[in-house]
């Protein structure tokens, strides 16, 4: 189904603590250097608990995001060339929006070009009964695991947990830049080859819960 999205606000969230001068120029690894110019999208769905406190919830998300960006400072930066990022704390783009539909309607008839409207780093109220948190991160800065690490760092910060560990941002030491002057950065995703499929399984009493190993393996 088509999504009717009302953008409520837009802003750039800066790290809560300025990036030190000696970390201003961040070199990406060889693996990131040759990574395709695509973005990794993530969308998380939540049931609204207290609709009257949405503004407080959004303010808390922005504050905790600012703290998380201090640990993942390259995500609040800008590329100066294909191999370096200038960590000037410009910030991560943040959007608050309202979607006039129910989550079950989106899932029943998903349209990829419509779902992409929920990104990046966007907080949406889907008919005020559900909340969606979407994030998009450049593959040049992070792979899938790194994106998950960022979200699992942001989450405990938002919960107020103390001593949240910082990531080790030194992949360039393991995979230093190489001369790839002959490399053509034409790798990407061809839209005409993308197929969207959805699988729905009805719950039955005879279905046993999978073990943790089976769930991870799947």
The side-by-side strand order for the widest beta sheet comes to 1-6-7-8-3
| Helix fraction bin | 25-40%
User: How many helix segments?
Assistant: 7
Overall strand count: 8
Give the CATH superfamily.
Chloramphenicol acetyltransferase-like domain
Overall shape: globular
CATH topology: Chloramphenicol Acetyltransferase
Family: Belongs to the plant acyltransferase family.
GO molecular function: acyltransferase activity
Keywords: Acyltransferase, Transferase
Pfam families: Transferase
Structure description:
Keywords: Acyltransferase, Transferase. The chain has seven helices and eight strands. By secondary structure, the chain is α+β, with helices and mostly antiparallel strands. It has helices at residues 30-33, 54-71, 103-108, 112-115, 144-159, 171-174, 212-217, and strands spanning 5-13, 25-27, 39-47, 78-79, 84-86, 92-99, 122-126, 130-138. The protein has a single domain (5-174, 181-188), classed as Chloramphenicol Acetyltransferase, CATH 3.30.559. Helix 2 (54-71) crosses helix 5 (144-159). The protein has a five-stranded mixed beta sheet. Strands 2-5-4 form a three-stranded antiparallel beta sheet, with no helix packed on it.
């Amino acid at each position: 189904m088509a999504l009717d999205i009302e953008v409520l606000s837009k802003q750039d969230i800066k790290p809560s603590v300025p990036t030190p001068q000696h970390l201003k120029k961040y070199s990406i690894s060889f693996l990131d250097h040759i990574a395709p110019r695509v973005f990794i999208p993530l969308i998380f769905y939540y049931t609204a608990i207290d609709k009257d406190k949405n503004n407080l919830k959004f303010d808390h998300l922005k504050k905790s995001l600012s703290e998380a960006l201090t640990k993942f400072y390259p995500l609040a930066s800008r590329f100066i060339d294909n191999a370096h990022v200038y960590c000037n704390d410009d910030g991560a783009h943040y959007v608050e929006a309202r979607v006039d539909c129910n989550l079950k309607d989106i899932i029943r008839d998903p349209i990829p070009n419509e779902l992409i409207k929920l990104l990046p780093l966007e907080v949406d109220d889907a008919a005020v009964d559900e909340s969606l948190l979407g994030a998009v991160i450049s593959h040049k800065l992070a792979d899938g695991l790194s994106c998950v690490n960022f979200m699992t760092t942001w989450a405990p910060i938002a919960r107020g947990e103390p001593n949240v560990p910082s990531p080790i941002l030194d992949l360039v030491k393991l995979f230093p830049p190489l001369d790839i002057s002959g490399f053509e950065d034409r790798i990407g995703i061809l839209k005409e080859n993308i197929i969207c499929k959805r699988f729905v399984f009805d719950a039955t009493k005879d279905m046993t819960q999978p073990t943790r190993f089976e769930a991870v393996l799947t």
